[in-house]
Amino acid sequence: MRPLDGVRVLDFTHVLAGPFATRTLADMGADVVKVGTAERSGSNAPGTPYYLMWNRNKRSLALDVSTDGGRAICRRLCETADVVIDNFSAGVLDRWGVGYAATEAANPGVIYVQMSGMGGDGPWSKFVTYAPTIHALAGLTRLTGVPGREDIGLGFSYNDHQAGLHAAVAVLAALAARRRTGRGQRIDLSQFEVGVNLLGPALLDYFVNGRAVAPTGNKLPYDLAAPHGCFPCAGAASAEVADERWVAIACMTDAHWQGLRRAMGDPEWARAEAFSNVAGRAAAANELERRVAAWTRELSAEEVMARCQQEGAPAGIVQNGVDLAERDPELAHSDFLMEFADPHPTVGRTFADRLPIRFERTPCDRYERVRHIGEDNAAVLSDWLGMDADAVERGERDGTFR
Length: 402
Known about the structure:
This protein has helices at residues 17-27, 49-54, 68-80, 92-95, 100-104, 131-138, 140-143, 158-181, 191-197, 201-209, 254-263, 278-283, 285-296, 301-310, 321-327, 329-334, 377-385, 389-398, and strands at residues 8-11, 31-36, 59-62, 83-86, 111-114, 185-188, 228-233, 245-250, 315-317, 337-339, 351-353. The chain is an alpha/beta fold. The strands form 3 sheets. Strands 3-2-1-4-5-6 form a 6-stranded parallel β-sheet, sandwiched between helices. It has a 3-stranded antiparallel β-sheet with strand order 7-8-9, covered by helices on one side. Strands 10-11 form a two-stranded antiparallel sheet. It starts with 7 loop residues before the first strand and ends with a helix.
């Protein structure tokens, strides 16, 4: 038994934020039925990396909700589900006739998670959003750049992942509440507000001090720490930027600095009075980092990390995909990266990262490959609605299930 065995989740999500939420629920045992259509394109197409990455452990139902028959089946599925979740712009499910108000009357225990970009109402509720626009609007792009450059920001869909985790936690909380009250509820999750919520100290700084925080790159805006940054290392496979080797070093305390000194062989320059305390090191950060970089350039990133960690100085290789997949001993030890035993019917071999949570009594160690659109039509419609094979075949022929 897994923690969420028996929980039925009807999944209308797409791209990353929503599918990441439902993947988390599926990994923990929920019966997640992903509703889609073979006509989906772009990052939602069934063979794309996004689709393959975020839709494992789910069953796939092809359903055309533009038809009367498709909408009727959709209503029945919503009335059977424990959880209905979407991350469309606000109002899409209402237009399909399966919004919360319509469904709750027949299924008072249903939990509806609507995780739109800007929330269910408000002046921006109809905005079409993706991670880069959410990052920008929420202030994350500005704060994660470098001084003098406010156009860099986060390069990956960080807020999508955070919104997905928020949605998964919201589902768990609503299930717990339903156990007490017997009733479900609608959950309005604004991905934009998730992003603003991540600003933390920057918001406090503005409200208390009236100061708008500027980007600081690898420097810490509120703590004194030096050296604190990424440093070049030897061992690049070529002159290409992508092959450069770097290591992150973060000396948060004087003890960390003493450890770094020992790792470097306690050179004479490191014994200077100016570097004896964190205030002095921070004031002379540019010179200090130049000196540390001269040392790291002569060693591999692996050697720098090993020497620093042995002496109690926090350091870590700036790893790339090859490092993670082929060289990282920690991931290899836990078998965190895995290949699905069952090849995908059109893509072939596919791979995944495991759920990074280990339950002692209810292990979540089952991983099923991403299903092709409509691959589970017969099983899902039989399990959820009691439909027989002939009815499913008729629906597939007339285009309802496509």
